[in-house]
Amino acid sequence: MPEFTLPGDAETVVKTAKTYARDLAERTLATAVVAAGGVAVAAGPADMFHASFWETMAAAGIAAAGTLLKGMAARAFGTKNSASLAKGV
Questions:
Q1: Which residue, among 54, 53, 62, 55, has the nearest Cα to 32 in the 3D structure?
Q2: How far is CA 85 from CA 13, 53, 88, in A?
Q3: Distance (Å, rounded) from C-alpha 62 to C-alpha 68?
Q4: Is the pLDDT of residue 68 over 80?
Q5: Is the pLDDT at 6 greater than 70, yes or no?
Q6: Cα separation of 25 and 81, whole Å?
Q7: CA dist., res. 80 & res. 72, Å (int)
Q8: pLDDT, tens only, 9-65
Q9: I need a labelling partner for 51 at 20 to 30 A (CA). Which of 9, 12, 70, 81 fits?
């Protein structure tokens, strides 16, 4: 009888769709917060340009949407239950 082997390493096998969803949500939210903070600093104390609250939120939303799409692509091309394109992360 042939030996049964699981695809990938043990960590990859143990991860679930719930883990992937949590990973993707965390990365997307973190990107939105960091992007909003960056735009707020650039528009405020750094006075690099002037952005309203809604322009700041739009910039953060665009960055977060990019992270969301990248995480979805990672599911298709990277480790199946991780939002990282790096294998085994």
A1: 62
A2: 16, 32, 9
A3: 10
A4: yes
A5: no
A6: 13
A7: 10
A8: 666 555 677 888 888 999 999 999 999 998 888 887 777 778 888 888 999 999 999
A9: 70
The reported pTM is 0.67
Alpha-carbon distance 73 to 84, whole Å? Answer: 9
What the block records as the tokens of 9 is: 């390493």
Give SS3 for 44. Answer: coil
Element (H, E) at 19: helix 17-43
How many angstroms separate the most distant Cα atoms in the chain? 70
Contact between 52 and 39 (Cβ < 8 Å): no
Can you read off the two tokens belonging to residue 27?
């990365």
